[in-house]
Amino acid sequence: MPWDRNQMAERAAQELEDGMYVNLGIGIPTLVANYVGDKDITLQSENGMLGMGPFPFEGEEDPDLINAGKQTITELNRTSYFDSAMSFAMIRGGKIAAAILGAMEVAENGDLANWMIPGKLVKGMGGAMDLVAGVEKVVVVMDHTNKAGEPKLLKECTLPLTGTGVVDRIITDLGVLDVVEGGLKIVETAPGVTEDEIREKTEATIV
Amino acid sequence: MQKVYESATAALDGLLRDDMLIAAGGFGLCGIPELLIDAVVDSGVKNLTVASNNAGVDGFGLGKLLDTRQIKKMMSSYVGENAEFMRQYLSGELELEFNPQGTLAERMRAGGAGIAGFYTKTGYGTQIGEGKEVKTFPTGPDGQEEHYILEEGIFADLSIVKAWKADDTGNLVFRKTARNFNPPAAMCGKVCVVEVEEIVPRGSLDPDHIHLPGIYVHRIIQGEHEKRIEKVTTRKREEA
């Protein structure tokens, strides 16, 4: 059985270590916060906050307190606020230990495409290009194939890039792969998924 | 030194003209200068270039200036919340210059700090880096050369921003994540107009707790803000 969204998030949470400052992207990466357990993790929201808390109780939403996905959130007793220039200073400056992001395509050399489909989806990169350029460890959480069953882990990305050679680890519904010299290396498979199945559904070189 | 004005229209008097570059604060609909945007709509100025992280939503925030076709070009990092924006862009009526979010913030900060350009790793090897000067610096973990691209500071004609409180000398305090792009946007304009929820007497803000000193602020108005929430997300009490 491949992992579902929550199981992928749970697996991604294992990448986080005590004391880390972490940025979580929109979608499945947001769910990772539910699985950090007792680990002392500080979440950064690139619109200007360290120490992001859970969603507010109904009736306690504050329009001045949102995350990078524009959702209402809360603060914690460790929270600090700052402006966007300082927020990206700490991102580009390498102070954030890990970023967990979604992806449309990843190439075997670690190239990432996750911001644009020409002629179709023109929303923008937001903070993704800065994050992948500056953050120490970039973990991608994504479906292994698209809806038509075609690989999303490719020899070369076909979509406009977000960054070149930036991805360290990929967590898909089928397993966990690392970007290494010469291609991708399977480091773990989801329960009941074989390495052969991953190879069959991956265009990138598996080493 | 009289910085306090009666209304948004009065505060913008003499500052607006066609074809100008305006830097606007805000992230999504959080911390946007809603009163000043309304006054720019009412003024009828056109062919504006607006540097702002987002473009509002349909019918609110900068979306109002899109509905009236007063904007010629946006400089933004993310515009996915606005159907009218997408329509104008895909039909070629509106120019769009995508900037990575951190690059946009730093370009504004740089403009306000007298820095004409800076090198950043962000965007190297992507569409964003095309046509820009590339330089390497030995910044890798073991002193390896890494690639950087040259980005230019933004020097805006006018800044429109939103703060929480100001004193009458223009010292500003922001609230929570409504700070976002407001300080860098305020810094990069030749003239900066600020709207706040409350103007307090000088001496009542702790000088150690000023987020942006009044030297960057030229005109101030106080007013009522709608502060619309883009995505209300909550948890149920029993989950606590």
Overall description:
The complex is a heterodimer of chains A (207) and B (240). Chain A starts with a helix and ends in a 7-residue tail after the last helix. Chain A has a 9-stranded mixed beta sheet. In chain A, α3 (84-92) runs parallel beside α4 (128-134). Chain A has a single domain (5-200), classed as Glutaconate Coenzyme A-transferase (3-Layer(aba) Sandwich). The longest helix of chain A has 9 residues, at 5-13. The radius of gyration of chain A is 17 Å and the shape is globular. Chain A is built from 5 helices and 12 strands. Chain A has helices at residues 5-13, 28-31, 84-92, 128-134, 195-200, and strands at 21-24, 42-45, 49-52, 75-81, 98-101, 105-107, 112-113, 137-141, 153-154, 169-171, 175-180, 183-189. By secondary structure, chain A is an alpha/beta fold. With 240 residues, chain B is an alpha/beta fold. Chain B has a domain at 8-103 and 153-222: Glutaconate Coenzyme A-transferase (3-Layer(aba) Sandwich). Helix content of chain B is 19%, strand content 26%. Chain B has 6 helices and 11 strands. In chain B, strands 1, 2, 3, 4, 8, 9, 10 and 11 form an 8-stranded mixed beta sheet that branches. In chain B, strands 5-7-6 form a 3-stranded antiparallel beta sheet. The radius of gyration of chain B is 19 Å and the shape is globular. The mean pLDDT of chain B is 96.
The main sheet of chain A orders its strands as: 4-3-2-1-5-8-10-11-12
Fourth-level CATH superfamily of the domain at 8-103 and 153-222 in chain B: Glutaconate Coenzyme A-transferase
Using the coordinates shown, work out and report the CATH topology of chain A.
Glutaconate Coenzyme A-transferase
Tell me the Rg of chain B in angstroms. 19 Å
Largest sheet of chain A, in brief, is: 9 strands, mixed
What is the first-to-last residue Cα distance of chain A? 24 Å
> In CATH terms, what is the architecture of chain A?
3-Layer(aba) Sandwich
CATH 2nd-level architecture of the domain at 8-103 and 153-222 in chain B: 3-Layer(aba) Sandwich
CATH class of chain A: Alpha Beta
Please work out how many helical segments of chain A DSSP would assign. 5
Find the count of extended strands of chain B (DSSP E, 2+ residues). 11
